[in-house]
Amino acid sequence: MSQFKVLKSLVIDSLDTITKGSIKYHIWMGGLTLVMLIGMYCYFIQLDEGLSVTGMSDSVSWGLYISNFTFLVGVAAAAVMLVMPTYILKDIDFKQAVLIGEGLAVAALIMCLAFVVADMGGPSVLWHMIPGIGVFNFPNSMLTWDVIVLNVYLFINISIPFYILFRHYQGKEAMKKVYVPGAILSVFWAVAIHLVTAFLYQGLQARPFWNNALLGPRFLASAFAAGPALIILVLAVIRSFTAFRIEDRTIKKIALIVTVAAQINLIMLVSELFKEFYAPTHHSESAYYLFFGLHGKNALLPWIWTAIPLNVLATIMLTFGKLRNNLKVLYFCCFILFVAIWIEKGFGLIVPGFIPGPYGKIVEYLPTGIEIGVTLGIWALGAFVFTILAKTAIGIELGELRYKDKNSSAS
Fold first, then answer.
1. Chain-wide mean pLDDT for the chain?
2. Distance between CA atoms of 327 and 214, rounded to whole angstroms?
3. Ramachandran assignment for 400, one of left (phi > 0), alpha (psi -120 to 50 degrees), beta (any other)
4. At CB < 8 A and 24+ separation, what contacts does 286-290 make?
5. What pLDDT, in 10s, does the model give residues 257-300?
6. Which residues pair with 294 in a beta bridge?
7. Which of 121, 123, 130, 112 is nearest to 66 (CA)?
8. How many CB atoms lie within 10 A of CB 58?
């Protein structure tokens, strides 16, 4: 049996599957397509007029794009919290959700790369990041390391689920000796992508707000809280609209991961606040700007004072098992925790690092409509990609998609 024929059949069956569905499914995909088109329109305006149409400036050169990039690196890394217990610890309760988690990681990584392209101004400058052609500056540049680890992690998260689904599509079991080594590698690589991203910020000496030894560990804690929280919400939607069954005990086990990570993240937040405000120095000005405003400038106050109470509320509610095991309460906690960490790890981390500047100048930043349009378009792209991946994977796992060998059936 030619593997190429099987692959061709899989592609055809997948295309047939993702183009069929209920009215709600078509409305969902149509809505995502509309948002993507709006995002493309905004991006074309940015390409035509340059980054001047954004709220970024020479003083604040990273804004909404890099904020989302940083957050989504964590969402992508969170898949390891399902990969490790499933493939390494052999916990069957996580097996139902691991392919969904890896599909979410792929979508998150695609969004990460899209946000980098948007922030660079356009795809025409990407050749600078190609080894041997552009100014790759390896191994000195942390940005170069970030590009490498993200692309390798994307390859790992595509190849392992593809192999497993490809075997299941043929009615065969995946061989552990093929995918387990890759799964083990992905565990270490997930930690690497987040630490390297944290080191990228920590290595900028002129930005004292990021010169924090807790930045890397806190990146991981927030990632393992927000990522699995999103996975729980996605699993809730899948349980409601598909025949793919996710047991309550699976969701409750993931919820325990979210709870522990959220508690650690909150402890680290308190530690950072103590360091900044108990014995403040001039290096604490960025933190003062973020939490209290500085010299009458306070654009980020509504953001951070929304994020912190939501973070605390979600963590406290999740800590009590009776509340956490109530699925409706759990979904609410996961949603507000996801929003809180998105704000805190996005606007609350990236923008204050530039304010005030190295010479004390205060230039505030708020995203423009163009930036918001591009950002929503990229999020819609990620949701579109994930929906396609999930619908195909669910079809294979339910046995609805199977390879039909015409030669063997004819004989």
1. 87
2. 32
3. alpha
4. 286/207, 286/208, 286/209, 286/352, 286/353, 286/355, 286/356, 287/209, 287/352, 289/352, 289/355, 289/356, 289/362, 290/348, 290/352
5. 999 999 999 999 999 999 888 888 888 899 999 999 888 888 88
6. 297
7. 112
8. 9
342 vs 348: CA distance, rounded Å: 9
Closest residue by Cα to residue 55 from 304, 270, 347, 279: 347
* Alpha helix segments (H runs only) across 170-300: 176-202, 215-241, 248-277, 285-292
Is residue 59 classed as helix, strand or coil in its secondary structure? coil
pTM, entire model: 0.92
DSSP 208: G
- Integer Cα distance of 265 and 14 in angstroms: 40
Q: How far apart, in whole angstroms, are the C-alpha atoms of residue 363 and residue 57?
A: 9
* 358-368 b/e (C-beta count within 10 Å ≥ 16 → b): eeeeeebbebb
Single-letter amino acid, residue 346: G
Length of the chain: 411
What b/e sequence results for 264-281 when a residue is b if at least 16 CB atoms lie within 10 Å of its CB, and e otherwise?
Answer: bbbebbeeeeeebeeeee
Rounded CA-CA distance 372/379 in Å is: 11
Tens of pLDDT, residues 307-365: 999 999 999 999 998 999 999 999 999 999 999 999 998 888 999 989 888 777 888 89
Question: Residue 33 is inside which H or E element, if any?
Answer: helix 23-49
Classify residue 297 by its DSSP letter: B
pLDDT tens figures, 29-51: 999 999 999 999 999 999 989 88
β-sheet bridge partners, residue 297: 294
With bands split at pLDDT 50, 70 and 90, how would you rate the model's confidence at 399? confident
From residue 95, alpha-carbon distances to 88, 92, 101, 325, 345 in Å are 11, 5, 10, 20, 29
Helices vs. strands in the chain: H and E counts, helices first:
15, 0
In which band, very low, low, confident or very high, does the pLDDT at 71 lie, cut at 50, 70 and 90? very high
SS3 content of the chain, % helix, strand, coil (to 5): 75, 0, 25
Report H helices in 50-175: 64-77, 80-83, 92-119, 142-169
SS3 207: coil
Please give the domain boundaries of the chain with CATH numbers for all domains: 10-401 (1.20.1630.10)
